Amino acid sequence: MGIQRRRLGRSRIALAATAAVLASAGSAFALQGLPPGGQVNSDPAAGIDPAHSVAGEDPANADVVGGALTAGKVAVPWAIFRQTTASGHDQIFSRSFAGGAWTTRGNGTVNGASSAAGTISGSLNFDQGQDGEAPSIDFAGAGRTVPWATWYEHTTGGSFGANNIFASRFDNSGDANQGKWIFAGQGRGTGGAANVAVPSLNIHTNRDAENPSVAGGTTAAGGNPGPWITWQEISTAAPNTDQIFVEKPLGPGRTDCTGVTPGGSATPPLGGFCWQQTGAQRFGSGTLDPTLNVDPTREGIEPDIAFTGAQDTVPWVVWYETGASTGGLQGSNGMVFAAKAVADTGAGVDGGFHWEAHGNSGFGALDTSAGGLGPCSDTIPHEAGCSLNISPTADAEDPRVAAGTMNPANPTVPWVVWDEDTGSHHQVFVSRLVGTGTAARFVPVNGGQPVSPAGVDSGRADITFSGNTPYVTFRTVDGGTTTTTVGHFVNAANPTWVTDKSGIPTTPFGSGAGQADVRAPISSGCTANPFNADGATCQGGALGTPFFLFTTGTSPLSLFADAYQSDAPVTGGASGVGQNAATVSGTVNAEGAKASVSFQFGTTTAYGSTTAEQTTGPDNVADAFTAALTGLPTGTRIHYRIVATSDFGTQVGADQTLTTHSPPPRVVPGKASVGHARVSGTTVSVPITCKGDTSCKVSLKLTVTETLRGHRLIAVSARKAKLTHKTVVLGTVSATIKAGRKATVHVGLNGTGRHLLAARHKITAKLAVVQRRRTISTQKVKFTAPKHHGRHGGH
């Protein structure tokens, strides 16, 4: 799975007249196609003919990043890719995905050789008569709202005749150039089809430069990020190996590039930007160039760049070196290196920074301090210590870097993925920076074990962060079948790999017709950057769903996009059902990414109400959820279902129902009605009827009002002076009458009543019937003492 240092010739990929989309593309393994069944490279009106292939040459035919043109809005996928066209030349195109569709971003260019007479409206090429290759894209500018693209293409002209690096930005300012890509940089001479000023980034415009990578960032805390670009370029000194270079932007609004290297002058730069080479001058013929190579006598290949650290102000570049050393260092095996920019305004340092390599056990400035090469290259052991290789003598290649941290309390650090020969196969490894200052070292994660499966070749990896979770893609070749795998890491203290999806259909590996040797670039809507607190607060309230591009098919080769999505959620049962509330349940397997979970509910399957959102993941298990439904109508059948959403779509569980309790029937309290009381001797019989749903508890009381003279009770008029009244209770009783029944309640005179009756012979008393502390009936009842007849004696 080795990678060519550079293409010495050009081979064309055979194209079929018609395209056949793979049925499984973008729909397998719980991934969501963007859009389902549709491909990225399809916009014939802009020159993107899906009947023609995307390129298949290493190292990449596409790149993708999450971004937004308005600060704080949800970041959406922006793709850039290399597409073959009927013109016979490959063009660079860019498209963004929003609202369920891809939109071509570009309707012409500014400052390009084909800007005035371009025939392919969507092309970003400087010269549409040349092949644009190895594109890269990222966002920079205020609020990280400006897309920047870089790639390389062959450039003609007096001081050219080689592959040159170009960079342009998308114009969204609403001016006359709205929607165009504007080339930026100092003019390095005239060339191209229209013989115009060429804003090449090359250190030497007559030397082949290839495989650029761009990252938006700034070394000034709180500053607006600018596009920093790294690439490989053939050196001017023997043995004419590829060197790794980095340039930073000076702008916007620059009016001249006086003193800027390379090629600075008082001439106004194109697009308001100058490009400044960055690093210690270390290697070359005549004026030394600021190469990052640890061993400049070997080939520096395929660099990548990211910004890390507190407020993401430290640029890191990764690359690999291969080929024989003429400096007495390591042999021909590939070695992966990583270096950070360190502020330095000393003599022989360009751009205000030199580069310092950090490896598994060593570090050192990439300068001229030891043997003309620096401390990482003065001995073979030091070189090995400055590398990231699992084994310093094994063949390692194709590194990619992402900024992030699994612990939101810590600053971001570089995470690097690459593939390395383990004996019989190439395997994919991941390492992260641990420690600070001179103690900073790269430590392999996953216990030092590969993340790729054993027994098969794996490589062409890429890495990104979504919030505080790193995600990786890589390609696997097993028995002639090429597929793509994607997964993530768990456990910040001991990062451990979890495979999320494997077996994603991918164009067969190779460099021939119908084959491809490219990675599946991955990004998210919440990459770690200063505008989202390093992924802790995703822009626009998004989840930061990861997404990636992959190349599939053979004739033609087509570019598809997939995003993570959960499995179909499962609606569970209900509990705690009452008259107006209930608790519902469900489960969701987020399949490796975050998902937003809620419940819809209502009296029909139109639902109409939704519970508050909860978040699950990233994990790969069925997480259980519950939610309280309130404000429900009583005695009603309620429909509900669980809902899981990503940044790109919604999945729903099956409909379930519950029925709220009806209110209990209205209970009519028993109400007593009292009939006419009848007196018999010293007893009063009272008929009472109880109407209602409950029994009637009543109390009956017989009373008489008397007067007192002194302490003696007498029966005289209350109008007499010095007399007081007294109510005398003559008898009481309580009774309970069953609901709906009639009963006769008897109340007799008590001792006082019988005494008074005996004394007075007649008493008129008041009978009061009380229910629930309320008098419901009063009647007068008369008691008469029985007559006693004396004996008649005879005389």
Describe the structure.
The protein folds into 3 domains: 32-36 and 49-563, 7 Propeller (Methylamine Dehydrogenase, Chain H); 570-659, Immunoglobulins (Immunoglobulin-like); 671-784, Immunoglobulin-like, CATH 2.60.40. The N and C termini lie far apart (158 Å). It is elongated and about 155 Å long. Strands 37, 38, 39, 41, 42 and 43 form a 6-stranded antiparallel β-sheet that branches. It contains 2 helices and 52 strands. A hairpin with a 5-residue loop joins strand 33 and strand 34 (558-563). The chain has 795 residues and is an all-beta fold. The model is unreliable at 1-29 and 791-795 (pLDDT under 50).
Describe the secondary-structure layout.
Layout: E1 32-33, E2 62-67, E3 76-83, E4 91-98, E5 101-104, E6 109-110, E7 132-140, E8 146-155, E9 162-170, E10 181-183, E11 190-191, E12 196-197, E13 209-217, E14 226-234, E15 242-250, E16 274-277, E17 279-280, E18 299-308, E19 314-322, E20 335-343, E21 349-350, E22 353-358, E23 363-365, H1 380-385, E24 396-404, E25 413-421, E26 426-434, E27 441-444, E28 457-466, E29 469-478, E30 481-490, E31 496-505, E32 522-524, E33 546-552, E34 558-563, E35 570-575, E36 582-589, E37 595-602, E38 609-610, E39 614-616, E40 622-629, E41 637-645, E42 650-652, E43 656-659, E44 671-674, E45 678-680, E46 683-691, E47 696-709, E48 712-714, E49 724-737, E50 742-748, H2 751-760, E51 762-771, E52 774-784
